[in-house]
Amino acid sequence: MTASSYKIRTFTCISALALTIGLQATANAADKPVRLRLSHNLPTTNALHSGVMVPWAKSIEQASEGSLKVQVFPAQQLGPAKDHYNMARDGIVDMAFYLVGIEPGRFPIVSAAEIPFSVSDNGKGSRALYEWYQNYADQEMGDVKVCTMFYDGGGTIHSKKKIESPTDMAGLKIRSPNVQAANFYRLAGASPIQLSASDAADAVERGVVDAISFPWNLLSALGADRALKYHLDMNFYSLGTAIVMNKNSYARLSDQQKAVIDSHCNADWAERLPKAWYDWEQEGRQALMTKSDHTLYTVPSEKEAEWKAMAEQVRAEWQATVDKTGADGQAIYADLQKRLDAYNAGY
To answer: What pTM was estimated for this model as a whole?
Structure first.
């Protein structure tokens, strides 16, 4: 290649690159600024807000070069937690953080993710959850865009006495976080009560409940640790969560803006999102370990089979419910377990 031809080729490549960059810049400049409202149910002191929702929203803004601004509304400012799916569906908000098991019976397939002793790694488990539910999202949540899904920080049983066997729950009133945990408690002879986190903490103070299913840090944050001194030291359950988006809100975006949203609505983000939340809850566990008047205990090895057998009964009840809808519950659950095992995230 002659020097002159090399210069011509180099100039052509540089010109083409400059043209591409220019066209991209023009396209981005043409994007009209859009403000998206994202609602969730927890206070700003919770890691869901500061460690999950806010960083995710800022990443979207940065990736869109400022054309997308996600305004986060915490603490149920725009509506109660149980209404968040409908709020996104109806356009009351553009995006909503939704607890997938908060409305018993509404989304039976996805509730498989909340059967006790399902997931051991909330990050990799969240990737498995998101990928698994892609096969069923249109069937159950077809009136919204299911942006991403992930597990919460995990939770366990906090009580006024040691609960080493499911039979130890007999006669107790226990706050349940979702229908699957409630079924577990019912089968164990307890009386499950569904309450919001703040109401549950108040119920403990008033002696209305004997135990609660709670994450670690939230227990102390709401003051429920003043009455509950015994803590089952295992990840008994994890809540399935989703960020759902109004379909019209997504449709009105430019192609470039849609691409930004899509790049934040995937398995990679599903795995990343729960880390700060999980770490924050574990800080609460470590803090309780330092308090002499609190007892963290594990299930005796000879009792482990009892817990697993009870969870299997919960799974069987879930399968029967799903089968009644015409779906194949056994195959659906096997698919979830296969994906969890592929990431070494099964219990």
So the answer is: 0.89
